[in-house]
Amino acid sequence: MTTIHQETLSTALTNALSDKLVNLHQHFDEVTIAVNPAGSQATLELLRDHEALAFDTLMDLCGVDYLTYSDELLAENPKGRRFAVVYHLLSVKLNQRLRVKVFAENDEFPVVDSVTDIWPTANWFEREAFDLYGIVFTGHPDLRRILTDYGFIGNPFRKDFPITGNVEMRYDEGQKRVIYQPVSIEPREITPHVIREENYADRQ
Predict the structure, then answer these.
(1) Which domains does the chain have, with CATH numbers?
(2) pLDDT tens per residue, range 109-153
(3) Closest CA relative to residue 83, chosen from 23, 148, 159
(4) For the chain, percent helix, then strand, then coil, each to nearest 5?
């Protein structure tokens, strides 16, 4: 996207979204905005329907855990929220792209409006974000896990999820079925041990 095109899109977004817009920035030839979580469904619908925006296609949707990044995101996340949903939008008609971030207001129980009514392709994307991050999408027609097992405990993409997991699963020959048991692996940090000769860096 050219600089002129970015400026045109940024102006259109500012005019169309007004107070719904929390932050807008341009970086690496891309435009990224953060919008208020309250009424986010209506905001995203406006992005689809506004003639100067026309974002008719949802290319991707993912969850993000900003547990260790809050200080770097104060501009677009002034309240230091932990979880966000990121939408990658495409306007086929106008040949332009946009990244949209919606930060969930509650870190303990993150909730964001579903956009399946706006872009039906969001269905499985939202289920994935629910499964991996525990983000709940209100209005989703069938919100359940999509990648992990039905008995899985926790959300594996959260920054504080244990690397070893919470339980182990194995096939029990006596019971002829898969069973869960406590984790038998001791958690440990694997750090490579590097050995360098003295004055290694001084060699020509």
Answers:
(1) 3-147 (3.30.460.80)
(2) 999 999 999 999 999 999 999 999 999 999 999 999 999 987 788
(3) 159
(4) 25, 30, 50
Owner of token pair 């750090």: 191
Distances (CA, A) of 56 to 12, 46, 88, 89, 92: 16, 10, 11, 8, 7
Contacts of 169 (CB under 8 A, 6+ apart): 149, 178, 179, 180, 181
pTM assigned to the model:
0.83
Q: Rounded distance, CA 35 to CA 44, Å? A: 9
Tell me the two tokens of residue 175: 């019971």
The answer to whether 143 touches 72, Cβ cutoff 8 Å, is: no
List, in sequence order, the alpha helices (H) in 32-136. 40-49, 122-133
pLDDT digits (tens, 9 = 90+) for 59-102: 999 999 998 876 666 777 878 899 999 999 999 999 999 999 99
